[in-house]
Automatic annotation (TrEMBL):
InterPro entries: AB_hydrolase_1 (IPR000073), AB_hydrolase_fold (IPR029058), AB_hydrolase_sf (IPR050266), Epox_hydrolase-like (IPR000639). Pfam families: Abhydrolase_6. SUPFAM superfamilies: alpha/beta-Hydrolases. Residues 34-252 form the AB hydrolase-1 domain. Keywords: Hydrolase. One of its GO terms (molecular function) is hydrolase activity. This is Alpha/beta hydrolase.
Amino acid sequence: MPEVTARGIRFHVQTMDPPPADPARGAASDPPVVVFVHGLVVDDLSSFYYTLAGPVSAAGARAVLYDLRGHGRSERTPAGYSAADAVADLFGVLDALGHRRPVYLVANSFGGVVALNAALARPERVAGLVMIESYGPAERAGEWTENMLNTLGKSALVLEYERLADQLLAIGWRQRGRQARTADALVNGTSLLDDLAAIEPVRPADLAAVTCPVLAVYGEHSDIVDAGRLLLRSVPECTLHIMSGHAHTVLREGTEQLLAVMLRWLAHHAGTRVPVMAMAGGAL
């Protein structure tokens, strides 16, 4: 299991290198780095590993995936789940891997909070953002956290008092049981919920200070699609792609269309190749 230690914490990391450079094509010997930042609690780097990371690597980028603090196989600490901690963890992992030049961040759901705050805190280290159904931007405090915290609070009660992990393991659902046990330890055994409640949204005035290009991809029926529209209005260089017929599960259920849009955007901004499937995906 590949690991790095950053800020005194063990992080599970996976890296996918691009194919060898082809001198005849003039391919870059130092490929762009694309870092994937996943969502909360039951999510981990595997959600990208089996969807986006492989094709991004095949297109000529170095894909870096890591489990957020307390998630997946990364170390679970009692505290340290604020946005500032997550940003510091991100750059700590990149430093440990030796990636100090600007990188592209691909973020899903809560990962958008990390990516957006990273771009504002260290603009010299972020070359671009891909925000997939991402939380973070909002007009008012509490606008984006209320529903998420209510959902996590209810999940915490089910995990603790109904012993969901034990029930799943008892009927032979080992993977889901292990995920539930990890989620239980995270939401009921750390400061995660309190830290999330204290996170402030990134408001329009701050979004205007985002200097890198942004691709925002949201589902037509998503309950946070307004975050994508806010990004479009407020970020100086933003492309918004609304996926018709989809809700918050764009990454899992709309992978092919998402890849086509994202790979074409990366080709334009990062200089990666455009696979045939992406060229057939239509204009942004």
